[in-house]
Amino acid sequence: MTFADHFSSLAKQYAEFRPTYPDALFSWLSDIAPHHALAWDCACGNGQASYGLAPFFDKVVATDASKDQLQLARQHSKIEYRLATAEHSGLPANSVDLVSVAQAVHWFDLDAFYKEVRRVTKPGSILVLWTYEFFSMEDKAIENHLRDFYENTLGPYWPAERSCVKNHYTTLPFPFVNEITPPHFQQTLSWSRHHLIGYLSSWSAVKKYKMTNGIDPVQELEKKLIPLWEDPQVSKSIVMPIHMRVARI
Question: How far is CA 187 from CA 70, 190, 223, in A?
C-alpha cells in the first residue's frame, strides 16, 4: 500500500500519548446518524476515535494503512481493526452509517477518499472530519514556549499537507451540499510534563527535524520548561479546541 506514512515509526508514542476525544462529541454524532449498525473509523491510528464510537454503534470497522499502528490499537468487542488505505477501504457498498476521520484526512488523496465515502455509505449517512491544532494552558509562560516551538522551531518542518490543519479545516476541499454546522467541542486534559513531552515527540515535524538535524528538539524544549514545571509528574490543565467538517451524504 502506498500512503503518506508519517507515523508508523512513532506508533508507540502515538498509542501512549495521543489524546482521546470527549464523550459529548460521540454522543452528538450518534444523535445525527440515521442508523447505528456500522461506523467506519478511517485512518484510526491506535483507535483513539474508534473506541469512542463503539458504545454508540453495533459495529465499528477501524482501518489504517499502518500495521504498526494497528498492532498497538486499543481493543474492544465491537471494533474490528483492518489494514486498509482511506481510498480503498474494502467495505461493501451502501453499508456504512457514519464515516469518521480524526486528525488524518489532510494526508489523503481527497478525491479518491470522497469517492470511496460515497460508495460505502447509505443515503443520509454522516461524514465527519475533525482536527485539533494547538492548545491553551492556564500557565501562559509555558504556553508561550510551546507556541514558539510549534510555530518557529518546527515551522519549516511541518509537511505541506498540514496547512489546512492550521486553518482549522476551513480550507479543506469538502464537496458536499448538505453540510452540518457542529457544536463546539474541546478536549480538556490534565497532563504531566512527562505526558506533554511524549505527545510532542509524536509530531510529524519533530520526526523530520530529528532526521534533518540529528538533534531532538523536544529535549531542547524541555530544558526551557523545567524551571517553570519542575516536577515532571505534576499535572497542568491543557485545552485543545476541536475543529470539524460534517455532512450528510
Answer: 23, 10, 26
Please give the Cα distance from 36 to 101 (Å, whole number). Answer: 17
- The pTM of this model reads 0.90
Interhelix angle 140-148/217-225, nearest 10 degrees: 160
Domain ranges of the chain: 8-248
How many Å apart are CA 172 and CA 140, to the nearest integer?
Answer: 30
Q: Is the pLDDT of residue 6 over 50?
A: no
The tens digit of pLDDT for each residue in 25-38 reads: 999 999 999 999 99
Q: Which three cell numbers stand for residue 194?
A: 512527562
CB 38 within 8 A of CB 97: yes
Rounded distance between C-alpha atoms, residue 62 and residue 86, angstroms: 10
What pLDDT, in 10s, does the model give residues 190-248?
Answer: 999 999 999 999 898 999 999 999 999 999 999 999 999 999 999 999 999 999 999 99
Q: E strand or H helix at 107, and its extent?
A: none
List the alpha helices (DSSP H) in the chain: 11-17, 23-32, 48-53, 67-71, 110-120, 140-148, 163-166, 193-200, 204-213, 217-225
Angstrom distance (rounded) from CA 24 to CA 170: 22
Domain at 8-248: CATH code: 3.40.50.150
pLDDT digits (tens, 9 = 90+) for 132-141: 988 899 899 9
Name every residue whose Cβ is closer than 8 Å to that of residue 183 and which is 6 or more positions away in sequence: 28
Query: Angle 218-204-7 (CA atoms, 0-180°, nearest 5)?
Result: 120
Q: Other CB atoms closer than 10 Å to residue 181's CB: what's the count?
A: 7
* Sequence-distant (≥ 6) Cβ neighbours of residue 60 within 8 angstroms: 38, 39, 40, 41, 50, 53, 54, 76, 78, 79, 80
